[in-house]
Design a protein that fits this description.
Helices cover about 15% and strands about 45% of the residues. By secondary structure, it is mainly beta. The strands form two sheets. The chain has a six-stranded antiparallel β-barrel with strand order 1-2-3-6-5-4. GO terms for molecular function: cyclic-di-GMP binding.
């Protein structure tokens, strides 16, 4: 079995494939796993004894997950959740930086070209290091410095970066551009990871349904 992260490490509790709730590993015992109650635990009314949840965290191998069953609460302070593993720790996905999602409206603005070019766009996909989006046929060149702003399902992505790819859209309407992020903060990386973690199972179910009805 792949190991759990070190004690006191940050991890996330996912309920019904949502975007995750920040927690911390407190202990690993013969009875199971003990984590800090998520900060928003009081609002998680769907969690009852016996509920099936998922824990995930990031290490050098990528995104690690383990299914668990909620066994109950140990009163605090601090309050802790007791969990029983329902399977093995496994690595989710093959890429070091997963890529997916898309469809959200966003805004792109240049800040090296003057006067600045500002346009509405559509997110095509996203990773921890970059995003790909649609753009009108403006005069955007590789090397352009831009600011991107997108409202994701779990928060606001606001990031600066460099345009590394510009190519015509497959349908001939506008362009697809790739923006490589400039030193994203830890909070931005966590926002993207949680967004992708929630997106992946939904995408998998949709793809499976399409194959069954195709």
């Amino acid at each position: 079995m792949k190991p759990l992260p070190p004690l006191r490490s940050a991890l996330y509790v996912c309920i019904d494939n949502d975007t995750g709730h920040r927690s911390r590993l407190e202990a690993v015992t013969d009875e199971g796993i003990v984590i800090a109650a998520p900060a928003d635990a009081a609002h998680l009314e769907a969690v009852r004894a016996g509920s099936h949840l998922t824990l995930f965290w990031i290490n050098a191998e990528g995104r690690m997950v383990i299914p668990v069953r909620f066994a109950g609460v140990s009163p605090g302070p601090p309050e802790r959740w007791r969990l029983h593993p329902l399977g093995e720790v496994r690595r989710l996905g093959r890429r070091r930086h997963e890529r997916g999602g898309g469809g959200e409206r966003m805004r792109v603005s240049t800040y090296t070209t003057q006067p600045a070019i500002v346009f509405d766009s559509t997110l095509l996909d996203l990773s921890e290091k970059a995003l790909r989006c649609w753009a009108p046929a403006f005069d955007i060149a590789v090397g352009e410095q831009v600011h991107v702003r997108a409202v994701l399902s779990n928060g606001l992505l606001s990031q600066t970066g460099t345009v590394t790819v510009v190519r015509e859209a497959p349908d001939g309407l506008g362009q697809h551009i790739v923006v490589m992020f400039r030193s994203p903060s830890a909070s931005t990386v966590q926002l993207i990871r949680r967004y992708l973690f929630a997106w992946e199972p939904v995408h998998r179910r949709t793809r499976r349904a399409g194959e069954e009805h195709g």
